[in-house]
Amino acid sequence: MNETFDVVIAGAGPVGLMLACELRLTGVDVLVVERLNEPDMTLKAGAINVPTARALARRGLLPELVERQDETLAVVRKFQAQRGGTVIGTTSKRPGAGHFAGVFLDVEDIDYDDEEFADLGPAAAVFLVPQQSIEAILARRAEELGVVIRRGVELTGFTDAADAVVIQLGDAEVRTAWLVGCDGGRSLVRKLAGFEFPGLDPEITGHQAVVEMTGAEALVPGWSSTPTGIYAYGPTPGRFLTVEMDGPPADRDAPITADELQASLRAVSGVPVEITAVHSATRFTDNTRQVTDYRQGRVLLAGDAAHVHSPFGGQGLNLGIGDAVNLGWKLAAVVHGWAPANLLDTYTAERHPIGAWVLDWTRAQVALMRLDQRSRTLRTVFAELLATTDGATTVFKNISGVRHRYDLGGGHALTGAPAPDFELSDGSRVEDHFVDGAAILLDLADSAELRNLVVPWSSRVRVVTAKPTRSRSLAAMLIRPDGYVAWAADSTEIDGLSSAVTRWFGAPE
Questions:
Q1: What is the pLDDT of residues 403-413, one digit of tens each?
Q2: End-to-end Cα spacing for the chain
Q3: Of 10, 113, 258, 329, which has the fewest Cβ atoms less than 10 A away?
C-alpha cells in the first residue's frame, strides 16, 4: 500500500532527527527513514558550540544537555586527574574553550567580557556533549512528538515530479511533497538528484577510536605535534585520534582493524602501544566539498549531505544542526501554505555562507598541521598568537560560533543575529518562549501599536510583553522560530515591522 507524507527525511542522525522535530512541532506529517537498524554508536563529535546549545535550549532541552555534560565531565576529570593534560573547565557563565589544529586555547586568556559574549544565556555554558548523546536526546524528543521513524529501511530511488516526490523504499513506494537528504557525506539523495558538489580532494588520513591498549602511559594527554603527524590522547580513557599527512587512505570502505589503528598510533606518537580491543573506530580525511545550492526542486539537503570537511573542532555536527533549525520552520510554512516555495531560497542564501566559512576554517587547520618546515614554523607563530588575549578571544569567538549571523538587511544591529537571551520581569528568559517553535514579537515597551500591527498574523507570531530586568535601549524584537532577529527597534516606532512580518510570515490571515 502506498503512503503519503508531507515531508520524508532520509537519515536518522542528529540532523535528520532535529529537522523532524522542528517540522513536527508545527504539525507537519513527517517520515524519517534510516538504513541502519540501530543508532550508530561510533565515536564522532565530542562537543557542541553555542548556536547548537542555544537551539536545543529554545526547545526546552537544556536540562538534558546539562545532565549529559555533567556525566561526560565526570569521566573527563577523572581521566585528567589520573593522567594530567589539558584541563577542560566550565562555569555557569562561561562556555568551554577548544583548539585550532591541535593548538589549545587557555580559558584564562579569553576575554569573556567581550561584547560578543553578552546575553548568550545559560545554554552557552554547555559544550561537552558527545554526538551520541545529542542523537539520543533528539530521538527521545522525536518519539514524544510523534515523528514516524523507520529503521532498517533504505531509500533506493525517487522521482521528483512537479507536484510531489515519489520515493522507492525497497519494494514499497511513498509519496511526499518534499524530500530532505540528511543521509551523510556520501548522500545517495545528493547523488541521485544530481547536486553539484565542488571542492578539494583529501590529503590526509585520520583515525579516531576508543580502544583498550597497553603502553598508553607513555602517550601524552591532549594534542601533540610530532615529526610524523599529530595525535590526541583523551579526554576519556582509551580515546585517541591520529592525523597522518601522507595522503588519503587507499580504501575508505575497508574494515578498520586493531592492527591498522595500532600502526597509525605507533607511527605518529612513537609509542609502542598494543591495542587489545576496539570499541569504536572511524577513518576520516579532509575531503572538503559543498553543494552549490541546498535545494533542487522538491529535494533539499542538510548536514553532511550538503557539505563535507575534516572533523577538526566537531564543526560538522554543529553546522548540520544549524541547517536543520534554519530549514525546519521555513519548510513547515511552505507545507502549511502560508508561505510561497521561494521562502526556501533563503535557506541556501543564509546557510551556504556559514558552510563555506566552516570549510575554510577546517582547511586552514589542515594547512597548520603539515609537516614541512615552513608550516611547522607557522604553527609556532600561531601558537604564540593564540597565547595572547586578543588572539585567544578572536579564535574562540569563531570556534564557539557566537559570530554566526545572517545578512537579512535592515538598519538595526541585531537584525540577522541570534536574539539576545536576557531575563524578563516575569521571571522567564527570552529563550524560554520558543519551546513550541513559534515566532515571537517581544514587546519590551508595552506598546499597543506594536502589538496591534501583528494581530493579523496571530497564529504565526506570538506576542510576549515583558520588561527586561535590566535597563536596555531595546524596545522590541521580531524573532523568527529559529531564534534569529528579523526586525528590532530601540523605540516604539513601527517602521519596517509590517514588511518584516510579511517577508517572513506571509500575507495576513
A1: 999 999 878 99
A2: 37
A3: 113
Cell of residue 453, nine digits? 500591527
Q: What is the b/e burial string over 434-466, where b = at least 16 CB atoms within 10 angstroms of the residue's CB?
A: beebbbbbbbbeebeebeebbebbeebbbbbbb
Q: Given a cut of 60, is residue 146 above it in pLDDT? A: yes
User: Which residues lie below 8 Å from residue 167, measured CB to CB, with a gap of 6+?
Assistant: 8, 155, 157, 158, 173, 174, 175, 176, 179
Number of other residues whose CB lies within 10 A of the CB of residue 413: 10
Q: Give the pLDDT confidence score for residue 86 in this predicted structure.
A: 52
Q: Is the dihedral of CA 302, 307, 311, 316 positive or negative?
A: negative
Q: Please name the amino acid found at residue 183.
A: D
Q: Is 35 helix (H, G, I), strand (E, B) or coil?
A: coil
Mean pLDDT over all residues of the chain? 93
Neighbouring C-alpha atoms within 13 Å toward the C-beta of 222:
17
Task: Indicate whether 89 pLDDT > 50.
Answer: no
30-34, 157-161, 329-333, 493-497: which range is least confident on average? Answer: 493-497
- Whether the upstream peptide bond of residue 235 has omega within 30° of 0, thus cis, is yes
Q: How many CA atoms lie within 13 A of 212 on its CB side?
A: 3
- Cα 497 from Cα 482, distance rounded (Å): 18
Q: What b/e sequence results for 218-232 when a residue is b if at least 16 CB atoms lie within 10 Å of its CB, and e otherwise?
A: ebbbbbbbeebbbbb
Closest by CA position to 309, among listed 395, 202, 413: 202
Residue 181 pLDDT > 80: yes
Q: Which helix (H) or strand (E) holds 244?
A: strand 239-244
What is the average pLDDT across 446-467? 95
Cell of 53: 546549545
Helices (H), 337-487: 345-369, 373-386, 389-400, 448-453
Q: Which long-range contacts (CB under 8 A, 24 or more apart) does 411-414 make?
A: 411/496, 412/485, 412/487, 412/488, 412/489, 412/490, 413/488, 414/474, 414/477, 414/485, 414/488
